[in-house]
Amino acid sequence: MRNFFREFLASILAALARSVIRKYKPQIIMVTGSVGKTSTKDAITAVLEKRFYLRSSKKNFNSEFGVPLTIFGMADKWSGLSDWPPIILEAFALLIFPNHYPKVLVLEVGADRPGDLARILRIATPDIVVVTRLPEMPVHVEAYATPAAVREEEFAPSYALPPGAPLIVCADDEYARALASPLAVHLMTYGVSKDADVRIMSDGPLMETGDDHGGAAWLAGMEGKMCVEGKEYAVPVRGAVGRPQLLAPAAGIAVGLVLGLKMKEILSGVSAYQPPAGRGRLLLGKHESLILDDSYNASPAAVREALASLQIAHNVMPGSRRIAALGDMLELGRYSREEHERMGEEAAKKCDVLVAVGVRSREMAEAAKKAGMQEDAVHSFDTAYEAAGFLRDFIQANDIILIKGSQSMRMERIGEAVLKNIADQKYLVRQDEIWKR
């Protein structure tokens, strides 16, 4: 009965959202891919919002429910299925009465199971598509026959583009480029690759000084040098660390270019970009430690990037201990054991202390020991609560604590436990009342 009600509600929301799109005809920018969608969506929004009256997905509202709510402009009013009657009434009001509706919609779209994106594409057809990355082992793979099937679905919005429409893909992703190559679109690329249209020529830590650190230089984010149309530009991203932090603004620059914005205007927008919570955010921890909060979600590709980000932070904090609190990577199906073992081997190279959280992560812990980590440097816990209790007393001055795991592992509980300032909880993921309950 619950599934029937859910499907019935989804069909009503889809029909209303489709009607709203037909009435107001906004330009639709869709952001898809396995990793980096929310950061990319936020960067695109920062670039465009000074020029266009636009609306973008709240947080990661990218499902068959989230996309209609974004179209209605009611994502902030959604806390559960019980809210549907007033939402539907307000959607009808959009159709019946005149409304000052946005000219541009920036929609993050995602798939948990086969057919999800087909349902979303029946609601809205994109005018521009941005594909982030389609890694070898994507998230949600347990619901699909093969990893390639996940990549094909996540690329699906690109097939809905009309001829000559802009398709923007990460130049560093071989799968995205291969899928894009036969399409009759205006292809634009961004990334580190030498042939990228928006090329990240170099990247490194952004160091700043301030009273919070006694005037000493402190890791404040990332800074990249980007080449666009033969000219070089410095692009800083404050508040987060890791190469992915620069991919998001690079994608935002590409969207700005295809929409005809000048670089001065684009760079002004990029400067306002703030990385979303739980995606490599830098926070102060207890005992003057540094937290690298990447706790939103996890997949093999994302964990590798997070461990690389831990190394970036370590390079500018000599003598610090690298502590990686890594939770289970869920929805990997038959690939789970192999991928957790691979992450254990990777962690053995990139951290000094491994805190493994969850049943699946026991395999990660064992693989790390086999790869050379000392027995007393590897700690396993069943829950994030237990790991939080351990780390609260374990961390020391200048430690760097990476926090990463799938959403259901609730790794933000570790962040809550090791924050220096309780007020900084507002920068963590899943802090609203519905998640707290």
Ordered list of secondary-structure elements with their pairings:
Elements: H1 2-24, E1 27-32, H2 37-48, E2 54-56, H3 66-72, H4 84-96, E3 104-108, H5 116-121, E4 128-131, H6 147-159, E5 166-170, H7 174-180, E6 186-191, E7 198-209, E8 217-228, E9 231-238, H8 244-258, H9 263-270, E10 281-285, E11 289-294, H10 300-315, E12 322-327, H11 336-350, E13 353-357, H12 361-370, E14 378-381, H13 384-394, E15 400-404, H14 412-418, H15 433-436
Helix pairs in contact: 1-3, 1-4, 2-8, 2-9, 6-7, 8-9, 10-11, 11-12, 13-14
Structural class by helix and strand composition: alpha/beta
Largest sheet: 9 strands, mixed
CATH H-level superfamily of the largest domain: Mur-like, catalytic domain
Radius of gyration: 22 Å
Succession of helices and strands: HEHEHHEHEHEHEEEEHHEEHEHEHEHEHH
> Class of the largest domain in CATH?
Alpha Beta
CATH architecture of the largest domain: 3-Layer(aba) Sandwich
* Total number of distinct structural domains: 2
- Count of β-strands: 15
3D structure, described in words:
There is one protein chain. With about 425 residues, the protein is of the alpha/beta class. It has two domains: about 1-270, Mur-like, catalytic domain (UDP-N-acetylmuramoyl-L-alanine:D-glutamate ligase); about 280-435, Mur ligase, C-terminal domain (Protein-Tyrosine Phosphatase, Chain A, Alpha-Beta Complex), CATH 3.90.190. About 40% of the residues lie in helices and about 20% in strands. It has helices at about 1-25, 35-50, 65-70, 85-95, 115-120, 145-160, 175-180, 245-260, 265-270, 300-315, 335-350, 360-370, 385-395, 410-420, 435, and strands at about 25-30, 55, 105-110, 130, 165-170, 185-190, 200-210, 215-230, 230-240, 280-285, 290-295, 320-325, 355, 380, 400-405. It has a nine-stranded mixed beta sheet with strand order 2-3-1-4-5-6-7-8-9, sandwiched between helices. A six-stranded mixed beta sheet has the order 10-11-15-12-13-14, with helices on both faces. Strand 8 and strand 9 form a beta hairpin. Helix 1 (about 1-25) runs parallel beside helix 3 (about 65-70) and helix 1 runs parallel beside helix 4 (about 85-95).
